[in-house]
Amino acid sequence: MIELGKIQNLKIIRKTPIGAYLNEVDLTVSSDILLPLSQVPQELSVGDDIAVFVYKDSKDRIIATVRKPKIILGELTALQVVEITSIGAFLDWGLEKDLFLPFREQLGKIIKGNSYLIGLYIDNSNRLCATMNIFNLLDSQSPYQIQDRVCGTIYSITKEMGAFVAVENKYQGLIPNRELFGNHVQGEVVEARIINIRPDGKLELSLRKELYNEIESDAQKIIKKLELSGGSIPLNDNSSPDIINSELGMSKGAFKRAAGRLLKEGAIQITETGIELVWKKEENNR
Fold it and tell me: What pTM was computed for the model?
């Protein structure tokens, strides 16, 4: 059976001035599909097999191509938006006819020029379309363990849960709100650490490093912020978590741990209004 959206080996049934007609077996002429002349290898003859991708052209006819698209059925990949219209968006998938992404299959705001992680499906009109609703297309049984570092693509962000991530574009992952700091967008590729594997196999992720590395990184952020701010910043134990996150991109707990380390090392001092670099305080006292 010839299948849309897949690469398959078909037999050349006959050649014509416009190209070669392909099929699995020579059944009926009406079931043959065209491989345009420009894509027919000269060395192949009637009866030879050829690997092709099957889809529908701009006139909604089933057609074959020797070009390999950027995505096939069963895969997930990031594709760039090349056009936004009144009926949906169109994506570059490496073929002459761009891939349609209907409004109902979009998540969040779609921006021309940006790339988004999508899967393929066949709609009710038997056409290949793109979808950003990929949750059910991801596998929940991964080969990873807690503390493994992985790469993934953020495909959805919700205030209630956090950021949903396609780990290695194959497995279900979530960065819970408590682990999500800074500004992130759909389509963003992130590196994360696995902090929990749920009973159903789904991965819980953190953008933060292991605690000892995290403190070092956060301490450097605080020092850099102090230097850019003239040596002092109005942040301390009484500052709200939202303000700390906005200013430094870290949680209040991470701020307190890093600031505590800097205080112990003598790099900062506590003031009435926040924290201050030691060299700045010494300079002010001269």
Answer: 0.67
